[in-house]
Amino acid sequence: MSRPTLVIANKNYSSWSMRPWVLLRGLGVEFDEVQLKFGSDAHRDGIARWSPTGLVPVLWLDGEPVWDTLAIAETVAERWPERRAWPAEARARAVARSVCAEMHAGFRALRGAMPMNIRGAYPGKGMNPDVRKDIGRIVAIWTSCRERFGQGGDLLFGRFSIADAYYAPVVTRFVTYAVELPPVARRYVDAVLALPAVREWSAAGRAEPEFVAEDEPYAARP
Ligand SMILES: N[C@@H](CCC(=O)N[C@@H](CS)C(=O)NCC(=O)O)C(=O)O
């Protein structure tokens, strides 16, 4: 088996890139990283070669591209079964798959009005009734998962799983936009921020100087 390669974009901005990166790192799977920052020559010259869709992330495994975050997550779970990327118990696993699918396809108001920006601090920006509704649903998901399946640790299903990788960019948004949360959600935010993989990704994101105007609705161009 050759070493996997994960193709990503900016660590400050690319929430979809963050998910499989945190997943692989969190599971302890070794991989190479190709970073194609938005607007860069590397992106212009490399995206067609690395990505069948023109989007990131893409995970290359044994010469085959796997694109779209959910497909990558399922492939990782299948390829490294001993790392237990999904919860072991069937009922928990079904719920984990559901909350990932809901994240994958939904929360458009939150994603649009509060784009991921790890180095940014925009308290109160982006809040509107639709965003508030998305946040309410996310808090309900986190609360239910923690209560029903969280006994074995501090994460949604106790120990680290694909579900935590999926919600990690939501956690960083809640920090960037200083979203007020009930205690159970606040504790989950702290648990995700303490994960070594999330710390490593976030430190690298904060250190990136690139300004991408489309992802910066609340900042003046420098
Ligand atoms: N459904 C895709 C979404 C991927 C996606 O939207 N990626 C963004 C970066 S976060 C992208 O590549 N945007 C570049 C573009 O739109 O040209 C997935 O889950 O991987």
Query: Structural class of the helices, strands and pairings?
Result: alpha+beta
Instruction: Report the span from N to C terminus.
Output: 45 Å
Attached small molecules: glutathione
Work out the strand percent: 5-15%
Principal-axis shape: globular
Strand order of the largest sheet: 2-1-3-4
Unreliable stretches covering 5 or more consecutive residues: none
How many E strands?
4
**Rg of Cα set:** 17 Å
**Into which percent range does the helicity of residues fall?**
40-55%
Report the major sheet: 4 strands, mixed
Q: Count of DSSP helices?
A: 9
What's the SSE pattern?
Answer: EHEHEEHHHHHHH
Average pLDDT, rounded to a whole number, is 97
Task: Give structural notes.
This protein is of the alpha+beta class and 222 residues long. It has nine helices and four strands, in the order βαβαββααααααα. The protein has a four-stranded mixed beta sheet, with helices on both faces. Helix 1 packs across helix 7. The chain is globular and about 45 Å long. The model has no long low-confidence stretch (mean pLDDT 97). Glutathione binds next to helix 1.
